[in-house]
């Protein structure tokens, strides 16, 4: 598994400011959390989703490719960090 965090620089309250994803070995999203500037979050996995959050239909590009777009700041995170965000989101 791989875990990533992507900060999205924009000024809209309608879209998430940070997205967290758990990725399979072929880079498909297994679980995803989207965090908004107001402190709220939504999530998705194969059995449920909240808000407008959905798992991607295509593999997630490499972090180097994502960072090629100046509005995104991707970083690798560890499983523990993802699990903490996930647990908070689904509570």
Number of domains: 1
Outline the low-pLDDT stretches.
Answer: none
Largest β-sheet summary: 6 strands, antiparallel
Please identify the oligomeric state: single chain
Order of adjacent strands in the largest pleated sheet = 5-4-3-2-1-6
The SSE string, one letter per element, is EEEEEHEH
Beta fraction of the residues? 35-45%
Average of per-residue pLDDT values? 97
Q: Provide the helix percentage.
A: 10-25%
Gross geometry: globular
Radius of gyration: 12 Å
User: How many helices does DSSP assign?
Assistant: 2
SS elements, strand count? 6
- Class computed from helices, strands and strand pairing: alpha+beta
CA-CA gap between termini: 23 Å
Write structural notes for this entry.
This protein is of the alpha+beta class and 91 residues long. It has one domain. Helix content is 18%, strand content 36%. It contains 2 helices and 6 strands, in the order βββββαβα. It has a 6-stranded antiparallel beta sheet. A hairpin with a 2-residue loop joins strand 4 and strand 5. The longest helix has 12 residues. The radius of gyration is 12 Å and the shape is globular. The relative contact order is 0.26. The mean pLDDT is 97.
């Amino acid at each position: 598994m791989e875990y990533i965090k992507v900060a999205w620089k924009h000024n809209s309250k309608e879209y998430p400011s940070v997205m967290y994803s758990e990725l399979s070995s072929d880079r498909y999203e297994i679980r995803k959390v989207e965090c908004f500037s107001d402190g709220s979050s939504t999530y998705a996995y194969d059995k449920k989703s909240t808000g407008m959050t959905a798992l991607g239909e295509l593999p997630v590009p490499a972090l180097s490719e994502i960072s090629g777009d100046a509005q995104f700041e991707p970083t690798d995170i560890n499983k523990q960090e993802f699990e903490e965000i996930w647990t908070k989101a689904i509570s």
